[in-house]
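Pipeline run #58 for the internal structure catalog. This entry was flagged by the ingest filter as a single-chain record with no existing model, so it goes straight to prediction. Upstream metadata was stripped on purpose; only the residue string is passed forward. Reviewer on rotation: M.T. Logging verbosity set to normal.
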Amino acid sequence: MATDLLADIQSCMGGFSKGQKRIAKFMLEHYDKAAFMTASKLGGAVGVSESTVVRFASELGYEGYPQLQKALQELIRNKLTAVQRMEMTTEQIGASDVLNKVLNLDIERIRRTLEETSRQDFDTAVDAIVNAEHIYIIGIRSASSLASFLSFYFNHILPDVRLVNTSSASEMFEQMLRISEKDVLIAISFPRYSHRTHMASQYASDCGAKVIAITDSQESPIAQCADTLLLARSDMASFVDSLVAPLSLINALIVAVGLRCRNEVSDIFSRLERIWDEYNVYEKVEETKTKDGSAL
């Protein structure tokens, strides 16, 4: 519903009361600001009562104003330009105590992700990954860091993992040319959503592969072609994408897959430790000794 919200407001304009028309006009012109206003604050901005704002939400078919506000927020997540996001950051966070505000917002996102993530869908995703012949992972722009992180660990614990590099659409499809019903594509996309990730997900689905979408909303483009949907909150309408909750979800996915394959994983890491030690991959940290020679 969020994607058609502004069109719905425009089409209902003739049936609104005088006060509701003022609300509608403000939303159409300043939807980025209205999305973060309480009913009381929005009413004050246009000169109507809070109850008029609540009735306006009902006129549009929402149970209450919070549902309308959520729809507005979903709408702007993929519409705001970087400049508008910067303005929203200034309004929502300000310049004082940024550390406290941003970290607390991220804590809240993780909490909501934990509450809203389907345990059944999570387990289904783990089953699909463990049983896949080949695993493809794609994430573009800011989501590429998540895709690289997931690929790094999955390459340690699974036999055939392919991080899809996407410098061009043709290169992307060339790398996915042989994807089949025995395979899995893990697609990662957060606002502003990548069109290329959506195309890759659709192609994988058309080829019969299972598509696991890691995204923020059921209205995300990649959710439409996903067999399994894993939702993670990324709510900051900012020039910086908050990927804390998605990363936490991906951590859980890595651990769950590792535990499912624990015997093979234990074997692999034993071999890796020998290689790392032989080729001095990591700095050796000397043990600190006490006066009697025992290690601390």
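catalog note: The chain has two domains: 2-77, 111-278.
catalog note: The mean pLDDT is 87.
status: ready for reviewer M.T.
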